[in-house]
Structures are given as C-alpha cells and as structure tokens.
Specification:
75% of the residues lie in helices and 1% in strands. By secondary structure, it is an all-alpha fold. The chain has one domain: Orthogonal Bundle (ABC transporter involved in vitamin B12 uptake, BtuC). Helix 3 runs parallel beside helix 14. It is globular. 43% of the residues are buried. Pfam families: BPD_transp_2. It is found in: Cell membrane.
Length: 337
C-alpha cells in the first residue's frame, strides 16, 4: 500500500523530497502567508464599500505610494535583526530630499544630485554604526540623536522651504521603465526584496545578522565579526532610507523638510507586523515588505472609505498590537510544545 502511494505521488510529479521542501517553505513563511491573507481580506473589505479600491488604477497607486516605505523597511529590518533600532531613517529621508533638490538648484544634474543625496545616507549610517559599534553607545540613544540632527539640517538646508525639482527628467527614476512594462518603483522593490532575502537566508554573512541578534556574545565567541555586521546594518539602513527619499521626490517632483516625519514609525511598524522581533534574531525581507504593504493598504482604505485621516495612526497601532500579540502567542505555544 505504501509502495503504491509513493508511486502515485511520484507519478503526479510530487516526490517525497519535493513535498518536504514545499512544507519547509510553508513552515518558514507561515507568518508571511498569514499577513498576505490579511492584506487580501482588508482589500476585499474596503472593496465591498468602495468598488474602485479593487481597480488596477488603485492597485498601481498603492504600490507606487508604498514603494518608499517598502524600501525603507527593508533597511530597518537589517538593523532590527541584529538587535538594534534605527530612529533616524525618517530624518535621513527628509534631508536626502532637501540636499538633492538644493544640489539641482545649484546646477547639478539628476545623477550627480542623487549621489549627494545618497551621500547623506552614507554619512549618517556610518555615524550611527561607529557610535554603536566602536563607541559602544545604545542604538536608541545614538539614532535618536541623529534623528534630531538630520531633522534640523533638513530645515537648515533651505530655511524650511519646500524645493521643487528642476530636472524635467528626474521623474524617470520612479516612474520610468528600465524593463519595458515594469515601472521602476516596482522593479527596485522586487530587486531589493529578492537580494536581501537571498542574502539573509542563503549567504554566510546574512546568517551572521541572525546570530548577532540572537546573542552578540555567543556570536563573538564563534568568530563572527559582530561590530562589522552591526556597522553594515546601520549603513545599509540609512542608504535605503536615502534611496526611498530619492524615489519620493522623483514621484512628487518636490522636496519637503518634513516629508519623512512619520515614516520612521511606519517602517518599524512594518518590520514588526512582518514578524520581526525588536529583541533581534528574527525577521524576513518578505515579511517586512508585506508589513509595509499592509500599512499602505490600511492608509489607502481609510482615505477611500472617507474616514478622518487622523485615525490612520490608531488603526496602524492596532495592527501592530495584533501582530505582536499573535507573535507572542505563537512563540509561547512553540515553547510549550
């Protein structure tokens, strides 16, 4: 009987190893699958009230509006996995936009101005990494300081004025198509998602992040370069925050000194909703992306239904609470098992 069942399974193209592999993938991404289902249910719920919510045009708007948050969340994820926190990403996002716009106002082209913008992320990421790893300061304190500094510089650069983007071709960074039929904002999100997920799951250096987040002392004893790993995480977080800032000003063709004021909390929320623990050692790129999409879908739904936008923060906070409670409950059950 067993032999017959095995033959039938293999005949259907489902070898035992393939079945085990599929079950392993489902087990690994159980939280992510649940989030994806929740996003679909949210979209359907909003669509039942406002049919246009399920239109292709609204889907495009949601993905384009959510792309900067997705990219920023991927950077924050790397820091959170190592057991740290990055509160400066919102201010780095804002300062990047202002510096880039100011550089264009001085006559630099889009590419050169973008390099100045990315330089903001490189500088602040390096400062965060140095103070956390070399100076040994607490990540919360360090990134709170750089949050304040970058935020004030975003006002100082242009005296608090908004800056239009003078380069007529800069919109191509966000809405152009390096691959015909695929907008750049989707392409960038997909490439970063795949690259970071492969890095974390398949590469030795990526596994170091989880080891450092689980126990930095144990990781050090195993010969893992703890300080280098943490330093890289903070630099990557700030660079991705800067890149998300470039995408945003490319989308709206205007730079605002307060553009990233709420994004820091949203990025951390996306990472937590996506299954990462603020204690470190867990999290996936897929989860962070889905968490960012859930926040964007919630915001979009609130706007379409006509609910006062002031409720967005409360709804997002409730989503975080539910995600944390579910995560704590599932971990308790696994521990009891």
């Amino acid at each position: 009987m067993t032999h017959t069942t095995t033959q039938g399974t293999q005949a259907a193209g489902q070898t035992p190893s393939a079945i085990r592999h599929r079950e392993s993938i489902i087990g690994t991404y159980r939280t992510e699958v649940a989030i994806a289902v929740a996003i679909a249910l949210l979209a359907l719920a909003v669509g039942s009230q406002v049919p246009q919510a399920l239109s292709w045009g609204n889907f495009a708007n949601v993905t384009q509006a959510g792309a900067p948050l997705i990219i920023m969340s991927l950077g924050v994820l790397l820091v959170v996995i190592t057991g740290g926190i990055d509160l400066s990403v919102g201010s780095v996002f804002s300062l990047t936009g202002m510096v880039t716009a100011q550089a264009m106002a001085y006559g630099y082209g889009g590419v050169a101005a973008s390099m100045f913008g990315l330089g903001v992320g490189l500088v602040f990421g390096s400062i965060n990494g140095f103070l956390v790893t070399i100076a040994g300061l607490a990540p919360f304190v360090v990134t709170l300081i750089t949050f304040a500094v970058a935020g004030s510089l975003a006002f100082i650069v242009t005296n608090g004025r908004s800056m239009p983007i003078p380069d007529p071709d800069f919109w191509l960074l966000n809405s152009g198509s390096l691959i015909p039929g695929l907008p750049n904002y989707i392409l960038f999100c997909l490439v970063l998602l795949v690259a970071i997920e492969i890095f974390l799951k398949k590469m030795v250096a990526g596994r170091w992040f989880y080891a450092v987040g689980s126990s930095a002392a144990a990781a050090y004893l195993l010969g893992i370069p703890v300080k280098r790993t943490k330093f890289f995480a903070y630099v990557a977080s700030s660079l991705l925050a800067s890149f998300s800032g470039l995408l945003t000003i490319s989308y709206i063709l205007n730079a605002e000194s307060t553009a990233g004021s709420s994004l820091m909390l949203q990025a951390i929320a996306a990472v937590v909703i996506g299954g990462a623990s603020l204690l470190g050692g867990t999290g996936t790129a897929v989860g962070a992306v889905l968490g960012a999409l859930m926040i964007t879908v919630i915001q979009n739904g609130v706007n379409l239904i006509g609910i006062n936008s002031f409720w967005q923060g409360s709804v997002t906070g409730l989503a975080i609470l539910i995600a944390v409670v579910i995560d704590r409950f599932s971990k308790s059950r696994r521990g009891a098992g």
